[in-house]
Design brief:
The chain is of the alpha/beta class. It has helices at residues 49-56, 78-87, 103-113, 119-132, 148-160, 178-193, 205-211, 229-234, 239-248; strands spanning 11-20, 23-33, 38-42, 64-69, 72-73, 88-91, 166-170, 197-201, 214-219, 222-227. It has one domain (11-248): Rossmann fold, CATH 3.40.50. A hairpin with a 2-residue loop joins strand 1 and strand 2. The chain binds adenosine-5'-triphosphate (ATP) and magnesium ion. This is ABC-type polar-amino-acid transporter. GO terms for molecular function: ATP binding; ATP hydrolysis activity; ATPase-coupled polar amino acid-transporter activity.
Length: 251
């Protein structure tokens, strides 16, 4: 069963190429992400997953091709770019919380500065989001007083506070101790069920199977295979995907 595509995709990437010097890091990438769709990107180290994510909020520029978010081309600079970055929430492997700000201040900073939300309203929303990620008692502590899994859930709340059009996650659990991985994946799974549009790079194949509408497999800068999770995990079509799965599923 193919995932259905609405008429205006949330993200549309077409013919995108990116080089780092001699390295052709993204090769003719075409990918659309529908509104409310969860796309999991997987593939070997160095295949271009992070680079592709970073092009979507213009942390990397591209050499050729087109990218639109919610039907609009990516802005190059200024306030429009700040708004794009707010529309595309991003959670990285390392938490990137501001160490000198409390949890509440971390979450309200963007809404106050970029969205110009009044402070009281931003704080009210931040507290709701903290409750949603299971951290209602932690508003006034500093990031260093939290576990890695808690910090990562704050990072998710911080992204959500901007009312993003989509959320991108680049290996959000890879730096976490095993017992903290599920608390983060559970929050992500809830978000997926609530209809958030998500692009997720992860090595957590269980999550990919449960939460993804589509799995996109990359190798050497190319999209090699796109399929539903059941199709991909039960019956990968290409030798490269079969080889990758045989390695990641055995340990
Ligand atoms: N800023 C950069 N300058 C030069 N080369 C880069 C840069 N960023 C990425 N690369 C190279 O581009 C290729 C793709 O990197 P990328 O980080 O996108 O891979 P990845 O699929 O996310 O890998 P991993 O699973 O290890 O995170 C790699 O060969 C990497 O070394
Ligand atoms: Mg990466």
């Amino acid at each position: 069963m193919e995932a259905t595509q609405p008429k205006t995709p949330m993200v549309s990437i077409s013919g995108v190429n990116k080089h780092f010097g001699d390295l052709h890091a993204l090769k003719d990438i075409d990918l659309t992400v529908g509104d409310g769709e969860v796309v999991v990107l997987i593939g070997p180290s160095g295949s271009g997953k992070s680079t592709l994510c970073r092009t979507i909020n213009r942390l990397e520029t591209v050499d050729s091709g087109d990218i639109t978010v919610a039907g609009k081309p990516l802005p190059a600079e200024g306030r429009a770019l700040a708004n794009l970055r707010a529309d595309v929430g991003m959670v990285f492997q390392h938490f990137n919380l501001f160490a000198h700000l409390t949890v509440l201040q971390n979450i309200t900073l963007g809404p106050i500065k970029v969205r110009r939300t009044p402070k009281a309203k931003a704080e009210e929303r931040a507290r709701q989001l903290l409750e949603r990620v299971g951290l209602s008692g932690k508003a006034d502590v500093y990031p260093s007083q939290l576990s890695g899994g808690q910090q990562q859930r704050v990072a998710i709340a911080r992204g959500l506070a901007m009312d993003p059009k989509l959320m991108m996650f680049d290996e959000p659990t890879s730096a976490l101790d095993p017992e903290m991985i599920n608390e983060v994946l559970d929050v992500m799974h809830d978000l997926a069920r609530e209809g958030m549009t998500m692009v997720v790079v992860t090595h957590e194949m269980g999550f990919a199977r449960r939460a993804a509408n589509r799995v996109v497999f990359m190798a050497e800068g190319q999209i090699v295979e796109t399929a539903t999770p059941d199709e991909f995990f039960d019956n990968p079509q290409t030798e490269r995907a079969q080889d990758f799965l045989s390695k990641v599923m055995t340990h």
